[in-house]
Amino acid sequence: MVIPMTLSELHKYADSLIANRGQTHGDLEDTFRNMAARMSLTLGMQVSPSQASRLMVDMKMARWDSGGYNLDHAVDGANYLLISAALELNKI
Questions:
Q1: In the chain, how long is the greatest CA-to-CA distance?
Q2: Distance between CA atoms of 41 and 79, rounded to whole angstroms?
Q3: Which residues have CB under 8 Å from 31's CB, separation 6+?
Q4: Cβ distance 18 to 29 under 8 Å?
Q5: How far apart are CA 73 and CA 20, in angstroms?
Q6: What letter does residue 4 receive in the DSSP assignment?
Q7: Helix residue spans in the chain (DSSP H)
Q8: Contact status, residue 54 vs residue 42, Cβ threshold 8 Å
Q9: Number of neighbours of residue 50 by Cβ within 10 angstroms
Q10: How far is 4 from 7, CA to CA, in rounded Å?
């Protein structure tokens, strides 16, 4: 069941997810630095933390393409994009 939300409510929901997941999964910058290092080893090429976050956007969009719309895919994808921007600006 999809709960209708306004754009403002979606922004607040997305922000709360980042805060909650930060408490659960640890520091964002550390997480994406570690993820980038692992991806770099797997791919055999340098991946930046921002690129790692953008790849997570693609993963969420692929899930949306394969399984249809899910609020989690949309909000997490938007958050990963914002995280990527913040990493590029060194604002995390």
A1: 43
A2: 25
A3: 25
A4: no
A5: 17
A6: P
A7: 7-25, 28-43, 49-67, 71-88
A8: no
A9: 17
A10: 10
| Token pair in block for residue 40 | 């770099």
pLDDT digits (tens, 9 = 90+) for 28-75: 899 999 999 999 999 999 999 999 999 999 999 999 999 999 999 999
CA 20 to chain centre: 13
* Reported confidence tier of residue 2, pLDDT bands at 50, 70, 90: low
How far does Cα 4 stand from its chain's mean position? 22
Residue 58 has which token pair?
């693609």
Cα of 55 vs its chain's centroid, Å: 9
User: How many Å apart are CA 16 and CA 13, to the nearest integer?
Assistant: 5
Q: How far apart are CA 21 and CA 19, in angstroms?
A: 6
Q: How far apart are the first and last CA of the chain?
A: 34
pLDDT at 21: 84
Residue with tokens 């958050």: 79
